[in-house]
Amino acid sequence: MLASLDLLSAFVLFAFVSSITPGPNNTMLLASGVNFGVRRSIPHALGISVGFMVMVLAVGLGLGEVFKIWPPLYTILRYTGAAYLLYLAWKIATSGPLSGEAVGARKPLGFWGAAAFQWVNPKAWVMAVGAITTYTPAQGYVFNVIVIAVVFALVNLPSVGVWVMFGSALRNVLRNPRAVVLFNVLMAVLLVISLYPLLFVESTFS
């Protein structure tokens, strides 16, 4: 088990701060809350938390070592993630104004799409590697990796949910179609900006 209550408390704080601060996931959830509301965005939020939990488990149980042995694999993943992020930014930017008919025809990012996105999300990799290298004691390592992954998911879900609820609250403010279009373009630009650490900061595994 985690070595001490102090270590667990420090990890929970790390999980909360890293989960609730802005990043690709939260930017997309904010946009989803505005465009689709809380109920239709729940699978997206759940996919983030479950997908990230699986990522933490994988990194803790050896995937990080694979990237260290063969760095080109991580480079491929980085640029695949960049391309997918640009695609998501384009989808958000061109989603158009809110209307009952239009919103009903459009689909939010689902559980599996959100879970898969964690593997190409630069912030998720930083969070997962940080959790394993900083907060996982060597004694009882495998059990501690499982605890870290589960606790992170439990902290992450309500944290990212705040962004969905904030986005949903903005629906009442963004009644003007032009305001919604402008909001979606702004969210798309923020997603593109989030590519900076993925493309221009040295890789964790290099």
Automatic annotation (TrEMBL):
* Subcellular localization(s) per the UniProt record: Cell membrane
The way it spans or sits in the membrane comes to: Multi-pass membrane protein
Q: Identify the keywords attached in UniProt to this record, alphabetized.
A: Cell membrane, Membrane, Transmembrane, Transmembrane helix
Top-rank taxon, per record: Bacteria
Statement: the UniProt record of this protein carries the keyword Transmembrane? yes
Q: Which Pfam families match?
A: LysE
Task: Give GO terms for biological process.
Answer: cysteine export across plasma membrane
Q: Which GO terms describe its cellular component?
A: plasma membrane
Keyword Transmembrane helix assigned = yes
GO function terms (MF aspect) = amino acid transmembrane transporter activity
Q: Which residues cross the membrane?
A: 43-64, 141-167, 179-199
Protein's UniProt name:
LysE family translocator
> What organism is recorded for this protein?
Pseudomonas xantholysinigenes
